Amino acid sequence: MFKGARVLEMNVGQILFLEGDAATAFYFLLDGQVKLVTSAADGHEKIVDILQGGDLFAEAVAFLGYRYPVQAIAAMPSRVLEIPLTIFLVILQQHQELMLQMLGRLSLRLRHLIMELRHLTVESADQRVVGYLLELCPSGNSPVSLLLPAKKAMIAARLGLTPETFSRVLKRLREEHLITVEKLKIYIHRPSALRQWAKEDR
């Protein structure tokens, strides 16, 4: 563990940082689940990302000295490692290979955000849901059983959909015999068929 870092125990609904706070640290989610949210123009909460154990977050804004563009809220009991930026900058100066890894991670994060923007602005609801399910699948075309990493309403918000729309898409996929749904468990019969279904005009 980095000297000066600390582990934070968070309860459901507890706020880690607020949108607009100075980014003085970044975080590593040890276990649990944290959602990153922002306020939409209509005042409703918009989920930007759903983080799972093992995810590093807020490193880009902290590294660049910005303010947090979102707020982080525990979606379930969680443990988070808080790493102060001042300490990490000293470590980066001493270990250039770590700095290169950080720059590489920031580049991958930027690419991911660009892809997410495309999903939300160009793709249909069907394509967003199918794309999300396929991201959870391992490579190949074998049948796969998935456990959704969050509640359906939270995933729907992450995809820019209402819970009702998300449920309707899952229902259509069931009726087409492409998936089987048991609460948060989804069985995908053939990933390639699911991918093809999203491309067809309906």
Automatic annotation (TrEMBL):
Sequence ranges assigned to domain HTH crp-type in this UniProt record: 123-192
Domain Cyclic nucleotide-binding, residue spans: 1-109
CC per GO annotation: cytosol
SUPFAM superfamilies from the UniProt entry: cAMP-binding domain-like, Winged helix' DNA-binding domain
Gene Ontology MF term list: DNA binding; DNA-binding transcription factor activity
Keyword line: DNA-binding, Transcription, Transcription regulation
Pfam family for this entry, one: HTH_Crp_2
InterPro entries named in the record: cNMP-bd_dom, cNMP-bd_dom_sf, Env_Response_Regulators, HTH_CRP, RmlC-like_jellyroll, WH-like_DNA-bd_sf, WH_DNA-bd_sf
Superkingdom, natural source: Bacteria
Name this protein carries in UniProt: Global nitrogen regulator
Species of the source: Acidithiobacillus ferridurans
